[in-house]
Amino acid sequence: MRKSLNIENESVNMTNDLPIKPTTVNIVADIGGTNLRIGTVSTSGEVESLEVYRCADYQGLADIIQHYVSAQNLSGKCLNACLAIACPADNDEIKMTNLPWKFSQSALKSTLQLNTLYMINDYTAIAHAAPFLNDKQKVKIGAGMTVPQKPISICGPGTGLGVSNVVFHNQQCITISGEGGHVDFAPTNSTEAAILNFLLTKYQHVSYEQLLSGLGIEQIYQAISHIKQQPVQSYTAAKISEKAIDRSCDICHQTLLQFCKILGAFAGNLSLTFGSFGGVYIAGGIVPRFIEFLQNSEFRQAFEAKGRFAGFNQKIPTYVITEEQPGILGAAAYLRQQISH
Q1: How far apart are CA 334 and CA 173, in angstroms?
Q2: How does pLDDT run across 168-219, given as a tens digit for each residue?
Q3: To which H or E segment does residue 312 belong?
Q4: Residues near 130 by beta carbon (within 8 Å), at least 6 away in sequence
Q5: Is the alpha carbon torsion for 332, 334, 339, 341 positive or negative?
Q6: Collapsing DSSP states into helix, strand and coil, what is residue 165?
Q7: Which element (helix H / strand E) includes 301?
Q8: DSSP 170
Q9: Which of 59, 63, 116, 172 has the fewest other C-beta atoms within 10 Å?
Q10: For residues 59 and 46, what is the distance between their CA atoms, to the nearest angstrom?
Q11: Which of 17, 124, 115, 26 lies closest to 340, judged by CA?
Q12: How far apart are alpha carbons 76 and 288 in whole angstroms?
């Protein structure tokens, strides 16, 4: 697959050409458990020559990148690389969560003969992409207005629940990441309290990730079925969502409505905690599949339902990221920032 991606934003000055020599090539990649997307970054910020590789077809990360370098005739050039990866990237030793890949960053840099190597977490990459997304790459949910240079928060229901935040300093994005998806789930009504009680029969600790993920959708369905004393079908999260949207199953419909409401409450907690007047962005592979459903749910009401601070959150916009390659865009933005300063 070949594609060109562009980063656009007027509020952050990241448009300076990269200070590179003609023989220098900047490589970016987004490494997931199934696929690896890799491309090069032009001096104008576009991601070019984008290719997708199945991770299972290769022995390791170095093999894929070497294949790409050879296929693109980049051998012998000065190579800078920023690689976004779906696992912690703080230490030299990297061990992927959903792949049997284990490697040393320093050894990888040496093997690939890279001039510079930046290895970042995938949500760090998405956080760096968020300020640059245009209206074609995101959908606004509800009211609120983005305030340039103010903090941004990102949460992403997927296999798990990723969380990251962005602040700005001297025209640069600074990412603050953590494990926000594992904070305690806080019910806001009797139904959610009953869901929590159901999950406490399975877990000693119930985090938001236990509800805001693919598994979370399934567990909300199981809990509501239990509460309503209805038989539990062996539905996947995708099947529950499908039946919720076409209204062919009332329990599934209630499940997805509850998922959206809990997501809104969680996103609202992020905005209160971080003062996210730059916006709260929903990432991940789940929510973009049912944006219209989300718009008609209680997502935004739950986001704003913060008692005396309802007015605080009413001013903060919420978005769903629809761009298919936010990790690649974020890796490109990160690399441009590192090289430009």
Answers
A1: 8
A2: 998 889 998 888 999 999 999 999 999 999 999 999 999 999 999 999 999 9
A3: helix 310-314
A4: 152, 154, 166, 279, 281, 321, 326, 330
A5: positive
A6: strand
A7: helix 299-304
A8: T
A9: 59
A10: 29
A11: 17
A12: 41
From the centroid of its chain, how far is CA 51? 20
Considering the entire predicted model, what is its pTM?
A: 0.86
The rounded distance, in Å, linking the Cα atoms of 324 and 327 is: 9
| Residue written as token pair 């995938």 | 122
Under a CB-based contact definition with an 8 Å cutoff, are residues 161 and 119 in contact? no
**How far is the C-alpha of 115 from the C-alpha of 253, rounded, in Å?**
52
Q: Which residue carries 């941004």 as its tokens? A: 152
Q: Which tens digit of pLDDT belongs to each residue from 262-313?
A: 999 999 999 999 999 999 999 988 999 999 999 999 999 999 999 999 999 9
Q: How far apart are CA 87 and CA 71, in angstroms?
A: 27
> Are 28 and 338 within 8 A, CB to CB?
no
Amino acid at 250: D
Strands in the chain per DSSP E: 24-31, 35-41, 47-54, 78-85, 93-95, 102-104, 116-121, 138-141, 152-157, 161-169, 172-177, 280-282, 318-321
* Contact by Cβ (8 Å): 41, 18: yes
Residue in 57, 54, 69 with CA at minimum distance from that of residue 108: 69
Instruction: State the greatest distance between any 2 C-alpha atoms of the chain, in Å, as a whole number.
Output: 68
Q: How far apart are CA 321 and CA 341, in angstroms?
A: 28
Q: Tell me the CA end-to-end span of the chain in Å, nearest whole number.
A: 32
- The CA dihedral of 282, 283, 284, 285, to the nearest 10 degrees, is 80
